[in-house]
Amino acid sequence: MIRILLAEDQAMLRGALTALLGMESDLEVVANVGDGESAWRELQRLKPDVLLTDIEMPGLTGLELAQRIARHELPIKVVIITTFARAGFLRRALDAGVRGYLLKDAPAEQLAAAIRQVHRGGRSVDPQLAMEAWGEADPLTDRERQALRLAGEGLSAGEIADRLNLSHGTVRNYLSEAIGKLGVGNRIEAYRLARQKGWL
After folding, report:
1. Residues 162-182: pLDDT tens digits?
2. Phi-psi category of residue 103: left, alpha or beta, with phi > 0 → left and psi -120 to 50 → alpha
3. Sheet strands side by side (includes 124-125)
4. Is the confidence at residue 128, as pLDDT, over 80?
5. Measured between alpha carbons, how far is 56 from 64 in angstroms, rounded to an integer?
6. CA distance 112 to 31
7. Per-residue pLDDT for 134 more than 70?
8. Which residues have CB under 8 Å from 54's CB, separation 6+?
9. Taken in order 153, 155, 157, 160, is the CA torsion positive or negative?
10. DSSP characters for the chain?
11. Radius of gyration for the alpha carbons in the chain, expressed in angstroms and rounded
12. pLDDT tens across 7-24, in order?
């Protein structure tokens, strides 16, 4: 039996995916949660074989969960299921050790097959995205990305500094670096472009 933890912030989709996977004789959803922090707690408690997660979630994103799993060397394989058909997201996911990356409009049987493939030690990645992923490299550092994401949520440099436990000047530097690398005029343009490219 392949034990799965499902992390998805949309309740209806979470319920549908749990029911769908429950119809497979060799798959068991041991828990389903609606945010990244809950997912992290349940991952440590239940130690499932596979984490099936969305990218965008409150608390921690699916990519941040994957990075934590890798950092803590947990033997949990990660499959991302997302609406984001952006090469930048896939590239960051693969860098974080994600083994599967599927779009939410993929056929249901493809999801079960992907989970089995990943559990066996293989990879399952949307082929079109895989080709695009190696096009344009993400120029942002993790800190620049964090600062830019918070700026895009409307936080001031001071508020970002408080949130990230950094000095005001350091945050200004990160935002300036990001703006310069992306070749735009301000932090909001930088945020929009980085999101469009799948780098946030």
Report:
1. 999 999 999 999 999 999 988
2. beta
3. 27-33, 2-7, 50-53, 77-82, 100-103, 124-125
4. no
5. 10
6. 17
7. no
8. 7, 8, 9, 10, 62, 80, 81, 82
9. negative
10. -EEEEEE-S-HHHHHHHHHHHHTSTTEEEEEEESSHHHHHHHHHHH--SEEEE-SS-SSS-HHHHHHHHHHTT---EEEEEES---HHHHHHHHHTT--EEEETTS-HHHHHHHHHHHHTT--EE-HHHHHHHTSSPP---HHHHHHHHHHHTT--HHHHHHHHT--HHHHHHHHHHHHHHHT-SSHHHHHHHHHHHT--
11. 18
12. 999 999 999 999 999 999
Q: Which residue has the higher pLDDT, 88 or 82?
A: 82
Q: Which amino acid is at 156?
A: S
pLDDT digits (tens, 9 = 90+) for 29-57: 999 999 999 999 999 999 999 999 999 89
Percent of the chain scoring above 90 in pLDDT: 68
Mutual orientation of helices 142-152 and 187-197 as an angle, nearest 10°?
110
Check if the beta carbon of residue 17 is closer than 8 Å to that of residue 115: no
65 closest CA partner among 41, 30, 101: 41
pTM comes to 0.69
